[in-house]
């Protein structure tokens, strides 16, 4: 709930500018109208002298009453706005992530896998109304996180992703097949897979084109991302005696033809991420392409606050009249 003080007719507040003008006009005209009489001895007129000095108080009360009426006419009020949102068409998304050894290549900083984890987490933050699942694959695949609306679980899982969880190789068909399997029972209006790889399909028991046909039959849209620079990159090729990975420069090979085929057949789109900034922009574009339809309902309640100013103005006018016809009766 958002509460805000405002005036319904703020333009009327400009009338307050007239108040000091009226006060100045009264000050100068009353000076001219008042005659000065000198008395040799004013002791017997002491009380009258005090009342004559307090006479401007009557006009001050009138100006305050006018000011209060102007404020009342501007209608001060408290505005309370309550907003409720309703998601009509949720989207179920499965992120299929390649975790093969090549994801440790250093053409993205600090490496491909760490760069992806950061971007994927930011993407999840921007999907508050959708359910998201996570599939990882290398030489085999499995569901890391079932489709859930608990984004904290998905983000924690992504943060813990490490190389070496699965057998070596890149089984794109198995990764896509596992993601499709996660969505086949989904009741969502829109079903999406974001398939990311940095290599070519070189192992696995599921043919990528068979998995594509299954996704197409289930109306699942697949966005494919090829991750890696153009040319060569530093890849891990072995482990040294100290257990640390040894990197060597090698050509970057991505099966773009297959990835484009998967995207085209499922009405998705293919992207190529050659550096960190392009990877970020790709996920931002997917976020824009797949928008959840949300209805927003706003309820506005006004608490009118002009009445106290009207009552104050009435009180000031009555008080002025009372003083004028009693205490100041002989001085006005």
Explain what the structure shows.
Helices cover 39% and strands 27% of the residues. With 332 residues, it is α/β, with parallel strands linked by helices. The protein folds into two domains: 2-34 and 43-80 and 300-331, no CATH class; 91-291, von Willebrand factor, type A domain (Rossmann fold), CATH 3.40.50.410. Strand 3 (91-98), helix 4 and strand 4 form a beta-alpha-beta unit. The longest helix is centred in the first third of the chain and has 18 residues, at 56-73. It is elongated. The protein starts with a strand and ends in an 8-residue tail after the last helix.
Shape: elongated
With strands numbered from the N-terminus, the spatial order across the biggest sheet is 5-4-3-6-7-10
* Total domain units: 2
Question: In terms of quaternary structure, what is this?
Answer: single chain
Radius of gyration: 39 Å
Instruction: Report mean pLDDT, rounded to a whole number.
Output: 88
SSE sequence, one letter per element: EHHHEEHEEHHEHEEEHEHEH
Strand content: 25-35%
Count of discrete alpha- or pi-helical segments spanning 4 or more residues = 10
Estimated helix fraction = 25-40%
CATH topology of the largest domain, by name, is: Rossmann fold
CATH superfamily of the largest domain: von Willebrand factor, type A domain
Name the CATH architecture of the largest domain.
3-Layer(aba) Sandwich
């Amino acid at each position: 709930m958002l509460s805000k003080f405002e005036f319904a007719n703020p333009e009327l507040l400009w009338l307050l500018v007239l108040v000091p003008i009226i006060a100045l006009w009264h000050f100068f005209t009353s000076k001219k109208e008042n005659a000065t009489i000198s008395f040799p001895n004013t002791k017997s007129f002491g009380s009258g002298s005090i009342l004559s000095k307090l006479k401007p108080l009557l006009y001050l009360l009138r100006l305050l009453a006018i000011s209060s009426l102007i404020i009342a006419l501007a209608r001060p009020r408290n505005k309370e706005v309550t907003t409720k949102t309703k998601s009509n068409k949720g989207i179920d998304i499965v992120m299929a992530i390649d975790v093969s050894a090549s994801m440790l290549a250093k053409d993205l900083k600090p490496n491909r896998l760490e760069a992806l984890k950061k971007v994927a987490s930011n993407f999840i933050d921007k999907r508050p109304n959708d359910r998201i699942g996570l599939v990882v694959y290398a030489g085999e695949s499995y569901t890391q996180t079932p489709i859930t609306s608990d984004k904290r679980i998905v983000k924690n899982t992504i943060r813990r992703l490490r190389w070496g969880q699965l057998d070596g190789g890149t089984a794109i068909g198995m990764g896509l097949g596992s993601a499709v399997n996660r969505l086949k029972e989904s009741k969502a209006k829109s079903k999406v897979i974001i398939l990311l790889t940095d290599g070519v399909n070189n192992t696995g028991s599921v043919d990528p084109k068979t998995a594509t046909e299954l996704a197409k039959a289930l109306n699942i849209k697949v966005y494919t991302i090829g991750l890696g620079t153009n040319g060569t990159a530093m890849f891990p090729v072995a482990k040294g005696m100290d257990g640390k990975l040894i990197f060597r420069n090698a050509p970057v090979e991505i099966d773009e033809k297959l990835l484009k085929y998967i995207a085209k057949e499922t009405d998705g789109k293919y992207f190529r991420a050659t550096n960190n900034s392009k990877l970020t922009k790709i996920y931002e574009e997917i976020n824009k392409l797949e928008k959840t339809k949300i209805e927003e309902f706003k309820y506005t309640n006004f608490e009118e606050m002009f009445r106290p100013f009207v009552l104050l103005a009435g009180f000031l006018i009555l008080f002025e009249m009372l003083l004028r016809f009693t205490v100041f009766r002989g001085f006005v």
